[in-house]
Amino acid sequence: YYVGDKDGEFGQEKWYLPSIGELMELHGTDFDSMTTGNGDNAAKGYNLKAINATLTELAKDGIAEKMNGHYWSSTEYNASSAWLYYTSVGSRYYTGKANPLSVRSLMTIENCFNQDSVEQPKIGDIMYLDGSWGTLEGYNSSKAEQVAGVICDVNDDGSVKIVSLK
Predict the structure, then answer these.
(1) Contact 84/92 with Cβ under 8 angstroms?
(2) Using CA atoms, how far apart are residues 138 and 102, in angstroms rounded to an integer?
(3) Parallel, antiparallel, or unpaired for β 81-86 and 91-96?
């Protein structure tokens, strides 16, 4: 998966299919109240609301699509099945690998921000091809071609994860 120019550096060989746990984090799952197996018992959706607000705004420029539906994870259930995540309700299930479902790739960007800085990215912010980030409020459509993804996780080490636009 490439973002921007295929001859450019950004995104080349760095995007990956997220695990079921990463998809649940992206949604905003409360892992402390989660039980095992199928279901939506701990899905809160706080993160996905912020991410989808940004994706919806970017969709107006034709560069993104809201996350709404079933998405494959990289986590196998067994040799013929894998876990998927249904973002509309926050449920996880496993199903046969032959089923045609969507994917959303993630990428980790290291050294995105200074941990000591007052200004830090937040979930739902926009990541640009030059490695900078900005808020949805600061976005204008003249920057549409420069958008790489939407921040879906902010780590204490100064790195972020971004989710692909489509």
Answers:
(1) yes
(2) 30
(3) antiparallel
In whole angstroms, what is the distance from residue 115 CA to residue 155 CA?
9
- Predicted model pTM: 0.86
Contact 18, 105 (CB under 8 A): yes
pLDDT digits (tens, 9 = 90+) for 1-44: 445 555 556 666 688 999 998 998 888 876 666 556 655 555 56
Amino acid at 139: Y
Enter the tokens of residue 112.
């995105």
Q: 26-35, 113-122, 155-164 — which one is most confidently predicted on average?
A: 155-164
Cβ(19)–Cβ(77) under 8 Å? no
Question: Per the structure block, which two tokens stand in for 88?
Answer: 């509309």
Backbone angles phi, psi at 160, to 5 degrees: -135, 160
**Whole-angstrom Cα distance, residue 72 to residue 95?**
9
Name every residue whose Cβ is closer than 8 Å to that of residue 40 and which is 6 or more positions away in sequence.
86, 89, 90, 91, 92
DSSP-assigned letter for residue 31: G
The CA-to-CA distance between both ends of the chain, in Å, stands at 10
